[in-house]
Design goal:
By secondary structure, this protein is of the alpha+beta class. Helix content is about 30%, strand content about 25%. Shikimate-3-phosphate (S3P) binds next to helix 1 and helix 5.
């Protein structure tokens, strides 16, 4: 679908957005693992989380949709049933990588598949540490999906230092660690999102050269009630839109304010963005609260390497803020963007060039100067939900608007994006 967006002048109103995608995946997984009934409120309604639910249905977990949320009848320690067919993770890297850590410890064979995009994404990053823990994993020649997981003799604990900043790899190892007697440790130089640690109550230690998280059999999840705060990554599109339109005032309710995810708020505030946090609360170790955003004038700033893992999913929309801010937007140390749902460095540079901006592409980032010159450019989503939404925001702020091709992929994280824009525009 080619979706056209015209410039809007300002916005106002209140938004309540769907549950955070990362927390939703984990709530489904941990409820499925726990023996007995869990209850999840405000689960993400995106396709990615549906992929996780479908995988666990095939593993024998029962999901009952109730008025207030989702009831999950979990299976208990190593009690999943063998899936009758391949487990399809769809477009979701979190599903494929985290479920591998769980399946590595089961006593049946399973095969994980994904869509075209996920089948190109690197899996060696989980295969290597899980194999060190005793897992038996067979992948295709390039270490991509599909992967086959064969029952292991035993899953044993390891001490592992992450070679790439990745919460998915960290979580896969910690989840496999829940099936071992001894303690598994995962060290990371620049801390990534810590939902797995918070939601399972894992021990973590902060050092001058990084962070270590620990898991063992003693941390295996129990049935629980979860309230999932709204997704800060989804909220970021609306936050940037409100900041870029003078005279705007927006209230976004119950947004996840986990410190390993709020880097985007820090960067935007340092650029001059007026963002206020109010009504802060906590559920399952996850802080959340309301955000009040006021239209502001922004200036580009230097973005430090340390903060990159914290803002990794927000870089597409942050670059849109950068285009309309004073000065040149530069992002470096972000090569991981090339391994997301699309090669996001290429996707962003391609679209900014299509809009007539001065773009320089680097291996680990890009820089952008100037303002959009092309009238209503046709921009490509590359079938990547965050690229599609970033260029919707870009078009809504650009004088001549813009069109985004293959826009339907937004349903991966936020199927109601268009309705939400209409409600505040
Ligand atoms: C996620 C971790 C991040 C992020 C992804 C979700 C998670 O990926 O980009 O959208 O839920 O653990 P990394 O594994 O590269 O950190």
């Amino acid at each position: 679908m080619l979706k056209e967006f015209n410039k809007i002048n300002n916005l106002s109103g209140v938004l309540t957005l769907p549950g955070d995608k990362s927390i939703s995946h984990r709530a489904v997984m941990f409820s499925s693992m726990a023996a007995g009934e869990s209850f999840i409120q405000n689960l993400s309604n995106g396709e990615d989380v549906k992929s996780t639910i479908n995988c666990f249905k095939q593993l024998g977990v029962e999901f009952i949709t109730a008025k207030e949320g989702l009831r999950v009848l979990g299976k208990g320690f190593k009690n999943f049933k063998a899936p009758g067919k391949n487990l399809d993770a769809g477009n979701s890297g979190t599903t494929a990588r985290l479920i591998s850590g769980i399946l590595a410890a089961q006593n049946f064979e399973s095969v994980i598949t994904g869509d075209d995009s996920l089948s190109k994404r690197p899996m060696q990053r989980i295969i290597y540490p899980l194999t060190k823990m005793g897992a038996n994993i067979i992948a295709s020649e390039n270490s991509t999906l599909p992967i086959k997981i064969i029952p292991a003799k035993k899953i044993q604990a390891i001490d592992y230092e992450l070679p790439v900043a990745s919460a998915q790899v960290k979580s896969a190892v910690l989840l496999a660690g829940l099936h071992a007697e001894e303690i598994t440790s995962v060290k990371e130089k620049y801390p990534t999102r810590d939902h797995t640690e918070r939601m399972l109550g894992l021990k973590t230690e902060l050092f001058s050269d990084g962070k270590i998280s620990y898991s063992s059999k003693l941390n295996y999840p129990l049935p629980k009630e979860y309230f999932i705060p709204s997704d800060i990554s989804t909220a970021s599109f609306f936050i940037v839109l409100a900041l870029l339109l003078p005279g705007s005032k927006l209230l976004v309710k119950n947004v996840s304010l986990n410190p390993s995810r709020t880097g985007i708020l820090d960067v935007l505030k340092n650029m001059g963005g007026k963002i206020e946090k109010v009504n802060t609360k906590e559920s399952s170790g996850e802080p959340f609260g309301d955000l009040i955003i006021t239209g502001s004038s922004l200036s580009n700033i230097r973005i430090d390497e340390k903060i990159i893992p914290n803002i990794i999913d927000e870089i597409p929309v942050l670059s849109v803020a950068g285009v309309f801010a004073e000065g040149e937007f530069i992002i470096r140390h972000a090569e991981e963007l090339r391994s997301k749902e699309s090669d996001r460095i290429h996707a962003l540079c391609y679209n900014y060039k299509a809009a007539g901006l001065d773009v320089e592409e680097f291996k680990d980032g890009f820089s952008i100067k100037g303002l959009p010159k092309i009238n209503s450019p046709v921009l490509e989503s590359f079938h990547d939900h965050r690229i599609a939404m970033a260029f919707a925001i870009f078009s809504l702020v650009s004088k001549s608007g813009g069109k985004v091709n293959n826009f339907d992929c937004v349903s991966i994280s936020n199927p109601n994006f268009i309705e939400q824009i209409k409600s505040i525009a």
